[in-house]
Every structure is written in C-alpha cells, then in structure tokens.
Amino acid sequence: MLAISDLHVGHPANRAVVDALRPASADDWLIVAGDIGERFSDVERTLRSLRSRFAAVIWAPGNHELWTLPDDPVQLRGQARYRALVELCRTLDVATPEDPYPVWRGPGGPVTVAPLFLLYDYSFRPPGTRTAQEALAAAHAAGVVCTDELLLHPDPYPSRADWCAARLAETERLLAARDPALPTVLVNHFPLRREPTEILRHPEFAQWCGTERTRDWHRRFNAAAVVYGHLHIPRDLSTDGVPFLEVSLGYPREWQPRGAAPAPRRILPATAPPASPLPPGHPLSTLPAPGRPPTVRPPAARPAAVRQPWPVRV
Asked: What confidence score (pLDDT) does residue 273 get?
C-alpha cells in the first residue's frame, strides 16, 4: 500500500510524475491524501488514470479540490462541490470518506483504511492569540493569509469552522462503527496533530492546517499509521508509537532542486523511515543540529494581494 498527496497536476512537471506512477505489484493500493489539483477536470483525469493502474485507489480531499476558481467550468461551491467529487469518485471506483472503509488484507494487514475529510477550525492558533478572531487578525497583520479565505466556500455552512464541526461529528460516528478488532490507517489531508506545523516559519499559517479536536484520534481509533499532506514537508514523525507520515509531492520548485520527485510512501507493509526527512543541501530547509529545530525558508514575497507562506500555495 502506497500513499502520496499534494500532486498539483496543474504543473506539467508534476503531471508527468503522476503519469509515471506505477504499483510495485498488481495488488498494490494507492492512497491519495488530497490536493490533486484545483480544477474538477484535473481531478477526474488524474483519478481515472491512477485507478487504471492500481488495484484500488483511496481519496481524501484536500483544500485545493474544494476551491472554486473563477475559470473552472464546474462552479459548484462548498458542500455541493465536495458531494460532486464524491460522486465522481464512485463512477471511477475510487473510495472516499463517504464510502464503507476498505480493509487492506495484504502484507501488514488486515487493517481498516479510513479516508477522512475534516477541514480545520482555526484552533492551531499562533502564540499570543486566544481566539480565532485574534488568530486571523495576526495572520492579516503578518501578511500570511490562506487563499482558502477567498476560494474555499463553506456553503451551506456559515463558516469553514462550522463545516469542520459537522465533519468531525459525522466522521466520529463512522469511525465508531468500524470493526473495532482491526487497527486503522487514518488518512487526512490535514495533520491530525499540531506538532507537524511547528516547523513552519510563519506560525500564523498553522490555523489553516487542522483542529485540536483530533489530537488523540490515533489512540481513540487504534491507528497503526496516520497519513497526511498539506504542509509539503515530507517526513516521518512518531507519537505514542504511532507513525505520522507526511506524503506530499509538492510543487516543482520544492522537489526539482533535489533532482527527483519524492516517491510515494509505502505505508504497508511498514518500512523504516528514510535516513533524514530532507536531505542535506535541500534548498528549502536545513536539517537541525542536535537540540536545534529545523528552519524553513519561505519564497520571495509575492506581489499578489494575498501573500502566502511556504510550503503550500493555499
């Protein structure tokens, strides 16, 4: 079972990488943990192609699939857009958060693979802020504002935080109804815990990266592994003995300097993590010295009205 996220196939170099993906065996599954692209047609083309190559494809939406771009022929917004993507996946035989969770019975199984759609509720707040309103004000003051604020509409919910609350309640119900005898692989585009965001140079961006309400889900739902993306910082972490695996491809400017795109991460059977999450000489980050946190360099300031922090164009 392999996993990848943040494909961003609107970039030709990324599309070539995705078109070249192949299973290691005829029985291999592929988890796609969100951000295939922004346009409905790109999502359809990519999932159709991947499903023709892998024994099964499992999709959890990212924020980019939920954007409504002015030039996308599909102008659905919010919940209606998400439901249309789910129906598209069903025509392609791709599993979604709305379908019965599939059970992997290959090497390392049996394990329930649970794709999740949870969004965020602004509870990953930057230091010195106590409310979502203060966190957003701090982001605006710093010039670090997520493009979701312009393009990810929560319709019919009053806000993205309200949509997140509804998704949390529904997902908890579905997870509670699974077979409790089996461990899980929890798949969500956004990290389930705040710790992965602590590497971000702009702490204001973390509020668009998840919710504190999922902090203990790896224990509550017996996770053998947690798979996520969104941050574009592929690395392995561990909490309570559970591996948290960031499986992002990311933008060409992030992976091309290394000479090759990140390969999809093998989830099951479990494999040892790479020697280092980002190799020496990586242009976007530096590996920490002992006892010292890593630093992440943002790109040059953009002239757009909404300035965006590395690592994700959101």
From this structure: 54
